[in-house]
Amino acid sequence: MSNLSASKEANIQVRFFHHRGGKYLRIDFKQYDSNAKYRCKQIEGYRYSATHGCWYFPCTTGTVTALRSAFPGLSIDQAVLEDMKLEVEESPSAPVVREEKMAVWVSRAASGKFKIEMPEVRSDWASKLEIIPGWHFDTAGQFWLLPDNKESIRLLFSLFGQHLELTPEVQADFAPRPRGRESDSISLPRPQQVRWRPSTTLPPMHEKALLAFEEQLLIERMSYATIKSYLNHFARFLSHFPQREAKEISPDQIRDYVVHIVKAKDYSASTQNQIINAIKAYYEKVLKYQRQLYKVSRPKKPLRLPSILTREEVRQLFDATPNLKHRCILMLIYSAGLRISEAVNLRVRDIKKSRKCIFIRDGKGSKDRYTVLANNVMPVLDQYLKQYHPKLYLFEGQSGGAYSKRSIQAFFCRARDRAGINPDVTVHSLRHSFATHSLDAGQNLRYIQEALGHNDIKTTERYLHVSSDALRSLSSPLDDLDL
Q1: Residue 15 catalytic?
Q2: 431 catalytic, yes or no?
Q3: 23 tagged catalytic
Q4: For a pLDDT cut of 90, what percent of the chain falls above it?
């Protein structure tokens, strides 16, 4: 059968594409699914044309090889074959297909990660996996890879529920068996066993409301910390009304609850605001109530100045950190003004040495940004990469996956104590110090705002209050007196 006639039956076809004065390879799908997007993005030089509604790539033999690997059985137009002097690839034999079942299969890959397989007809399921940190689509094997940890499993249970199928090996580690009998079937954990759920047992009507709230927060791609906080606050709110459904609780009762909880607990102003926001989020996002004020006074958030280190204290901190990996982490956080969550989520490819910048992926507020890559951190970073050889994340734990934030906090405290510097500073103080020291060096406030990822310039302006240059420029009237 000729390659041209095969193209009539093939779902995917490659042909030449002339666009903006250039010659490219274009890929067309008869039946497009969301998995195809992730396969295309794995190919170097990929682009998408919204005008023509197609993906296109550099016109090279390397691109053809990558496309054939990503899309087995694709058809290449005869003109492409002749022009690029390519051979017709024999149609591959039909792969062995797992027993047809609407399920998400979870096993362990040779790389030590979770291998996720799902039916192609459920392409809508694939997009849900993007919420799980560390996801990756393997174009050669046509499956997903996720970090091998409890958070991945718990998120998979939340997203796919009864559709999730674990291999016995994975099941033995994460899924509890039913009490009183042995079974090879999968036992899903109860919702309150998910880490971000409270340990308090709720009545079925409240459990249903909590599940609906959790699903809505997941759909809206809220951060893990926000979901955990909202669900815990909302669960405590529901437990205060054991005989009432959520939709039966009046605004006055909501206000009385907030007053009660603030009196009973010594909550901070920010926690009080979180409680109100969590309750409002359920009624407005899940029950679709109109936005309303619950006549609860919002506490005034106290203005506290950030704790910073002097330049000499920063140097002493680095000197007190002999471990290469630990020193590299602290230097990168300080030199680029990173949050600790941004540091642990950095990937190797996010370090742009040629451009001397760092790409921050999915930072606070789900925002991407670029920040500076300091010259003085480059030798330490190069030495670290040569010694540790990280694969995906720039800083990986002993068992793979992203490095633990708790570990960074722990070795920071040890280094701080060894250096004998201000005992009140934390890892986040390095970010504050980056901003303050940049201001002292005369850097533009707007550039500092961009590097830190602040939405509002007023957030960055608070560092003016702790800038040593600002204090030095102010003279005390006492000095003008002739004493």
Answers
A1: no
A2: yes
A3: no
A4: 19
